[in-house]
Amino acid sequence: MSKMEKHYRLSEKNIEYIEEVKEKNHLKYNSEALELIIREHRNNSDITTEVMINLIGEKLSEKLKAELLGIKKASNESDKNTQIIIELLNGLFVKSGYKLLATTGDIKCKAIDNATEFVEKRIASKRVAKLDRTY
Questions:
Q1: Any long-range contacts for 30-39 (C-beta under 8 Å, 24+ apart)?
Q2: Which residue of 86, 89, 98, 103 shows the fewest CB atoms closer than 10 Å?
Q3: Residue 39 and residue 24 in contact, taking contact as beta carbons nearer than 8 Å
């Protein structure tokens, strides 16, 4: 590969950088340092957009996986508790001999309102405590 002579205007800061590279790499000429800088720049620029997208996707996937695992565990626990309650209520109804059931649309007792209010306060309290631990 033949070399050509060209003249460029560079800022003083860039010229200082070229000289730094020359000294650091024990090069004889500033042009050799400039070629080294360009070569390194080309090598580092070879990372394509697709590779960057894949890299970002992998990192994002790792973070989301951890977050979703917590949601999955909470969902499983809620499902388990709901199934236990259904089994307990079914056993209670069978043992008591209930044939018909009044729904909350027909009659709503005060205990339902009390239980709902209690559970909502407990959930809000746990949510605030978790936010306090997080921050």
A1: 31/3
A2: 103
A3: no
Cα torsion at 24, 30, 34, 40 (round to 10°)?
-20
Alpha-carbon gap, residue 103 to 110, rounded angstroms: 13
Cα–Cα distance between 30 and 20 in angstroms, integer?
Answer: 9
The DSSP call for residue 28 is S
Q: Quick check: helix, strand or coil at residue 70?
A: helix
Taking the model in full, what pTM does it have? 0.41
In 3D space, the residue among 20, 52, 56, 59 whose CA is nearest the CA of residue 36 turns out to be 20
Q: What is the DSSP letter of 26?
A: T
| Residues 1-12 pLDDT 10s | 788 888 989 999
Read off the pLDDT of residues 69-94 as tens digits, 9 standing for 90 and up: 888 888 888 888 888 888 888 888 88
Q: What are phi and psi of 121, to 5 degrees?
A: -65, -40
